[in-house]
Amino acid sequence: MLIENGTAEWATYLKGHMASLRSQLDPEVARREALAVLDNTYAELSVSSEELERQGSQLEEILAHSIRLERRHSVLVGLIRDGVLETDEAGTIRQASPRLARGLNVRAEYLVLKPLLVFVWEPDYQMLHHALRRVTTEALLDWEMHLQPRNGPPVKMLVNAARLENDGVGPASILWVFREA
């Protein structure tokens, strides 16, 4: 009797499960469910596409602004009669004016990513290290240091240096202005 009762329950369960499967296999039901999923996906893609277009426009504006600033900076550095360079806080050169590069007998591109120390007269190494520590807290005005051009004698320079904040974008830098003493 137990086996017959269990078999009957099992048969009832299977009939219900088969009916459920048949409704899931109904092509019309499957088509409606697939269309609902596709509609939802299309709506999400449309929202994402609009957001990407907005962000792309913002990036284009930022790039155009950055290019204008870079051109302006290049023009200003080119007009300065003194040698100018920018380093990170460790003294690694980020960019240099053509005038300073000529004075050091190298191309401006060659200076980039080189330590400023490479172009300082050896007896002034300690002075440069001291200046790098001090300039993080105060501007340095009219102090003397010798630069060592490639294939030339040391040149006595008046130096001004100041730490520049980068408005939260990237690390701070140090701006150096060199004038022959």
Give a topology summary.
Blueprint: H1 2-25, H2 27-79, E1 83-87, E2 93-96, H3 98-103, H4 108-111, H5 125-134, E3 140-147, E4 155-164, E5 173-180
Antiparallel strand pairs: 1-2, 1-5, 3-4, 4-5
Detailed description of the structure:
It contains 5 helices and 5 strands; from the N terminus they run H-H-E-E-H-H-H-E-E-E. It is of the alpha+beta class and 181 residues long. It has 2 domains: 1-79; 81-180, Beta-Lactamase (2-Layer Sandwich), CATH 3.30.450.20. A 5-stranded antiparallel β-sheet has the order 2-1-5-4-3. A hairpin with an 8-residue loop joins strand 4 (155-164) and strand 5 (173-180). The longest helix has 53 residues, at 27-79. The radius of gyration is 35 Å and the shape is elongated. The protein starts with a helix and ends with a strand. The relative contact order is 0.09. The mean pLDDT is 85.
